[in-house]
Amino acid sequence: MRIAIVNDMPMAAEILKRAVLLRNHHAIAWVASDGGEALQKCRADTPDLILMDLIMPKINGVQATRAIMKECPCAILVVTGSVQENARMVFEAMGAGALDAVDTPALGLENFEKVSAPLLAKLDSMRGLLGDREPQRKEPRRIAGEAPLVVIGASAGGPSALAEVLRNLPCHFPSPIVIVQHVDAQFALSLAGWLKQQSALPVQLAAEGAVPTPGEVLLAGRDDHLILAGPRRLGYCAEPKEAFYRPSVDVFFESVARRWPGDVVGVLLTGMGRDGAKGLKQLRDAGFHTIAQDRASCAVYGMPKAAADLGAAVEILPLESVAAALCKRCSLR
Predict the structure, then answer these.
(1) Which of 209, 275, 203 is nearest to 236 (CA)?
(2) What is the pTM assigned to this prediction?
(3) Which residue is catalytic, options 34, 45, 175, 182?
């Protein structure tokens, strides 16, 4: 299992790391020092299991458990200095979604594996409960005679990368293309016009209620998030308000993974940060083909790197190969 640790005491976090790594089938996903940091990290990279402390500054373990189970649910095991002494908070955390609780191993004169045995037993139990954590890939929703929807996300360095992809697609390209590029709404219309000059395909801003059409390119054009509001209809929404990037690639990709009725190809190009990595992972887990740009051809190797680290990309390709890969995946055969 990939296990995350949430604990504000560096010594306790180190003890838990050592205990987890006593079993070679476990790995540390990340470590957070309070509940707020844990929620942020879980949004970006949801582990198989979280070892959650209870008494922490800012956001405690009960509050963090409640927030994580609401936004990015995963298995949570409460690990605290004394389950008995903190029984009230333990039961609150379990009421919020935690599965079980165990005392933090004490670092003393005894054999470390011996004092870690109760925790290791809980981890074994969790592993059996969770089963095989490799996502179950669904079969793509192919519709006869219909090419896949192509969705592309990009940020820093994106305009040039998008132009490179679009200029290498033929005028008879059979799929609809929808792009989310991190750009202020006031510049979106100019970007659409510039991309249109680079492409044999028509490019325009995505309007509220627009329907992706084969052979046409739609570009997110507002500071709100572009989403798939219905099975084939685009829309905009303000939520989540806390998303740093507006429009967010993650928000769009996740809505496509849930709602598009046919097949999809997802592409994540150059950009700073992690936006789009989690959404690309959702597309892959839904059975769709996913592509991330490689390090050497990226202006900024942030978003594609995050996707690669998550295992979100079926293919990692140089920019000059992306258009050819799309033509191959989207051909009507």
Answers:
(1) 209
(2) 0.62
(3) 182
